[in-house]
Amino acid sequence: MTAISRATSRTTRAQAPNPSPLTPVRYVNRAPATLDRWIEAHANVVKEFNCGDGYGTESGFAYDILLRAGWRRGDDFVHTLIEPTVAAMLAQLRSVTQCDCDECKALLPSEGPAQ
């Protein structure tokens, strides 16, 4: 990968905060400090945080994050992240990338630009 392609790929990832005004992140429950710091630094990406019942997790507990319109999980077109541990959630959050699916395109005018 060249330096230019690395720089280009970085701009599509959820690494830079959005300076445009957005609705605040909705916290249904308190987030652990590590997740809270990531969420607040990337409020342009995260719409809502919750933790509790873990659908499909062995422990029955999971962290849930709903992404804002214009963002998706890096390896598919999923807009909700569900992980049983903070480490697993941070790994998913670091792979978040911009999304241009029809659902996101329809929602973007109401939430502002994803970049």
Characterization of the model:
The protein is α+β, with helices and mostly antiparallel strands and 115 residues long. The chain has one domain (3-111). It contains four helices and six strands, in the order αβαββββαβα. The strands form two sheets. It has a four-stranded mixed β-sheet, with helices on one face. Strands 4-6 form a two-stranded antiparallel ribbon. α2 links the parallel β1 and β2. The two termini are 23 Å apart. Residues 1-13 and 15-20 have low confidence and may be disordered. Residues 1-16 have a biased composition (Low complexity). Residues 1-26 are annotated as: Disordered.
Given as residue ranges, the uncertain stretches (5+ residues, pLDDT < 50) are 1-13, 15-20
Mean pLDDT: 78
Kindly report the spatial arrangement of strands forming the biggest sheet: 1-2-3-5
The rough form would be described as globular
- List SSEs in N-to-C order: HEHEEEEHEH
- Assembly type: single chain
- Major sheet details: 4 strands, mixed
Distance between the termini: 23 Å
Helix content: 25-40%
Number of strands: 6
Structural class: alpha+beta
Number of domains: 1
Helical segment tally? Answer: 4
Query: What's the Cα radius of gyration?
Result: 14 Å
The proportion of strand residues reads: 15-25%
